[in-house]
DNA sequence: GTAGGGTTAG
């Protein structure tokens, strides 16, 4: 009690703690102070430093402030005490006090400068650290090995290449670059983080005594910049030199093994890791999981995962990514639920990966729930999670939602731009795609191969032939990057579908070793235009490359059918029979109240078949009023015209939509239709007209209400347009709501008739 | 009293 009283007298704030030991310590400390205060001559530098040491050991800011006050009072705030006190403040975690005292000191030890710099870097305040370092030099204090080994990290984190180079120069002058491995490895790491691997390697070669940290920094650099070969080479040399790899090295080199998909080396490294006793270190084991997954051995990844007692956020995410990259999206989604149940929180990596799974499966409802999680974690403006949400909505046909999420992003890069452009492209909104492409360039973002492919796809799906040609030629002439076969295939499709078949064929021949996709694209275009002769040339090439290609036989048989060459159809079908081909039946499915309903043409096994047929009959009549003309060219069997029309009515797409409309109420504005094959041209036109029917439920006996509909498709590869709208407003509105335009004369007639019915003065150019 | 390297994503 006496001590507490004394403390109060001395204006000291003390905390009465239940722990006896703490009270005892406190009392001893106070006794010391009081004794020294009474007996002034015994307060000297040594005793002050000893007191400060106690502050450090107890991590007590209160005591440090108390000693500080005494040091001032007794005029002892000199070099030793002052510098030691900054250390105490720093260890107590109080940067305000530390910095204030540090700035007030008449002179600072190098060690204090270093501590301050290191502290700022540890707190992520890299600019502050660099400023302090510059001030130190300007005050005539030369940096030492400690200063350099810290400060290079600040330059690399800020991406200050020139500053980093300048500091590197200074370390050379002071002889620290080569002689000190701490400095050397920090420089290597810095250049590696800048992606300047040549410079990193040169420095590493110069450092006198190489150790595992230095070489690991080099390996990590090569791994992260995709140079697996060099990473493996450095690793091999390291082992030969007798330098043992540690958990950091294994974590990185296993990623390289996965990247180069070299299972034998991966297994060898796994063996080394076990031999080193580092198999259970979390980060290395996580890399092991990734290595097996990238080598395609997902079961081994699962085995590694099951070995974790308490998988962390990164391990869980690695597992999800492994599953998704091995085509097991559904399993990944169920594992994600497991992760959440085990109270491991997802981060941006996790959510963007899971969203990727939802996008691939077009699972909009689950995707929306994950979007909600993204918002809950404040990641909706994060460029990774945010752009994954953009991709989700884009892939599911909700371009407006995609755009609204896209607009909220803080930072744009080429990937987020590509997602948005692709979303416009696949939903047939070509002009918006092109607009965004120009905006991207205005923002100074360099388009890449994917961007160009997306814009070309947009041109395909919106019939913007001239725009597509212009872009293709400009890239070809610019030679900023090489156009791939995919770009060529896109152009062949664009030209071919609008009837410029000769140009398309020339383009195919321009490609060195044209592949299956290119010839098949040309073949498809030939099918649209009934161009048998060129088709046969393309067919020869396709069969040379892939004699058993089922799709091609089907395509060719369909071409002969649409050209009315029934003899060849019979011949083709018999070849297919001989080769035991079976055409995949076209299927469509819709999800209503979490239940999936699947339909096939001519299959009446669905319990509601009768009602579906009634609804469909009514819908077809309504759509006919809008100008629907059944396009019997899509009937590939030899039958009379009336039979052909009837067979078109019962396509699986139409059955599924009729069913969905019966089962949903007025609140449903969107029906998502999934298909295993490309939608047929007739259904395509029919669906587009359907989206403009406005039928009220009470108008008929049937529960029909279609106001505004978007049809998201699993296979949206229906491409190319030969139709172009002109200024007529109604057509513009219509085009905006359309998915794609495809190029059939029947559709042109449909559009004209619709425009007429709606009272619009439309002019339509048909490009053939 | 001060210092260097790792694993997951769109």
TrEMBL record:
The keyword Metal-binding does not apply. Gene3D superfamilies: Tetratricopeptide repeat domain. GO terms for molecular function: RNA binding; zinc ion binding. Pfam families: DYW_deaminase, E_motif, Eplus_motif, PPR, PPR_2. Residues 627-694 form the DYW domain. The keyword Repeat applies. PPR repeats lie at residues 109-143, 211-245, 312-346, 413-447. It comes from the Eukaryota. Keywords: Repeat. PROSITE patterns: PPR. This is DYW domain-containing protein. It comes from Cannabis sativa (Hemp).
């Amino acid at each position: 009690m006496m001590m507490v009283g004394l403390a109060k007298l001395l204006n000291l704030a003390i905390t009465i703690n239940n722990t006896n030991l703490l009270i005892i310590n406190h009392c001893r400390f106070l006794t010391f102070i009081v004794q020294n205060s009474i007996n002034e001559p015994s307060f000297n530098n040594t005793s002050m430093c000893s007191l400060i040491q106690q502050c450090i050991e107890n991590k007590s800011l209160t005591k440090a402030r108390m000693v500080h006050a005494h040091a001032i009072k007794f005029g002892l705030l000199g070099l030793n005490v002052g510098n030691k006190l900054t250390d105490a403040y720093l260890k107590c975690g109080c940067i305000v006090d530390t910095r204030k005292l540090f700035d007030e000191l008449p002179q600072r030890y190098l060690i204090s400068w270093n501590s301050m710099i290191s502290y700022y870097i540890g707190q992520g305040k890299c600019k502050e650290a660099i400023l302090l370092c510059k001030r130190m030099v300007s005050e005539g204090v030369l940096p030492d090995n400690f200063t350099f080994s810290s400060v290079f990290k600040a330059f690399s984190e800020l991406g200050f290449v020139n500053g980093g180079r300048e500091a590197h120069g200074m370390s050379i002058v002071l002889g620290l670059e080569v002689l000190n491995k701490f400095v050397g490895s920090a420089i290597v790491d810095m250049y590696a983080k800048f992606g300047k691997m040549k410079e990193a390697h040169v420095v590493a070669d110069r450092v006198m005594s190489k150790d595992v940290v230095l070489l690991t920094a080099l390996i990590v650099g090569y791994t992260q910049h995709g140079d697996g070969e060099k990473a493996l080479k450095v690793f091999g040399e390291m082992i030969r030199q007798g330098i043992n790899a540690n958990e950091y090295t294994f974590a990185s080199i296993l990623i390289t093994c996965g990247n180069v998909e070299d299972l034998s080396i991966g297994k060898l490294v796994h063996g080394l890791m076990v031999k080193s006793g580092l198999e259970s270190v979390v980060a290395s084991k996580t890399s092991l999981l990734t290595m097996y997954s990238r080598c395609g051995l997902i079961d081994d990844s699962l085995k590694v995962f099951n070995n974790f007692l308490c998988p962390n956020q990164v391990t869980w995410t690695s597992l999800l990514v492994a599953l998704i990259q091995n085509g097991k999206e559904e399993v990944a989604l169920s594992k994600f639920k497991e992760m959440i149940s085990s109270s491991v929180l997802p981060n941006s990596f996790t959510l963007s990966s899971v969203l990727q799974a939802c996008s691939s499966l077009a699972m909009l409802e689950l995707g929306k729930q994950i979007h909600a999680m993204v918002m809950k974690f404040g990641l909706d403006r994060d460029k990774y999670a945010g752009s994954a949400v953009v991709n989700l909505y884009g892939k599911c046909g909700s371009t407006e939602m995609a755009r609204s999420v896209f607009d909220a992003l803080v930072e744009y890069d080429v990937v987020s731009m590509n997602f948005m452009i692709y979303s416009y492209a696949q939903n047939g909104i070509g002009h918006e795609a092109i607009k965004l492409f120009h905006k991207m360039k205005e923002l100074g973002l360099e388009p890449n191969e994917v961007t160009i492919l997306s814009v070309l796809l947009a041109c395909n799906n919106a019939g913007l032939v001239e725009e597509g040609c212009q872009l293709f030629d400009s890239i070809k002439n610019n030679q900023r990057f090489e156009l791939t076969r995919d770009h060529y295939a896109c152009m062949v499709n664009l030209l071919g579908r609008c009837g410029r078949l000769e140009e398309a064929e020339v383009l195919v021949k321009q490609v060195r070793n044209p592949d299956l996709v290119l010839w098949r694209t040309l073949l498809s275009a030939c099918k649209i235009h009934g161009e048998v002769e060129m088709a046969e040339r393309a067919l020869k090439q396709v069969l040379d490359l892939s004699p058993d290609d089922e799709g091609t036989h089907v395509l060719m048989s369909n071409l002969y059918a649409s050209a009315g060459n029934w003899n060849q159809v019979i011949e083709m079908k018999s070849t297919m029979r001989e080769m035991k081909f079976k055409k995949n039946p076209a299927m469509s499915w819709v999800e209503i109240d979490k239940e999936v309903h699947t339909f096939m043409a001519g299959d009446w096994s669905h319990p509601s078949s009768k009602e579906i047929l009634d609804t469909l009959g009514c819908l077809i009549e309504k759509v006919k009023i809008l100008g629907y003309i059944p396009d019997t060219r899509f009937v590939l069997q030899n039958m009379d015209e009336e039979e052909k029309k009837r067979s078109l009515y019962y396509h699986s797409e139409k059955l599924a939509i009729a069913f969905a409309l019966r089962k949903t109420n007025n609140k449903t504005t969107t029906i998502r239709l999934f298909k295993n094959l490309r939608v047929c041209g007739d259904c395509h036109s029919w669906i587009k007209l359907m989206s403009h029917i406005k039928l009220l439920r009470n108008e008929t006996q049937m529960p029909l209400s279609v106001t505004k509909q978007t049809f998201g498709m699993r296979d949206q590869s229906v491409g190319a347009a030969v139709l172009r709208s002109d200024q007529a407003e109604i057509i513009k509105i219509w085009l905006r709501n359309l998915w794609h335009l495809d190029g059939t004369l029947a559709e042109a007639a449909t559009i004209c008739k619709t425009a007429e019915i709606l009272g619009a003065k439309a002019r339509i150019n048909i490009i053939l």
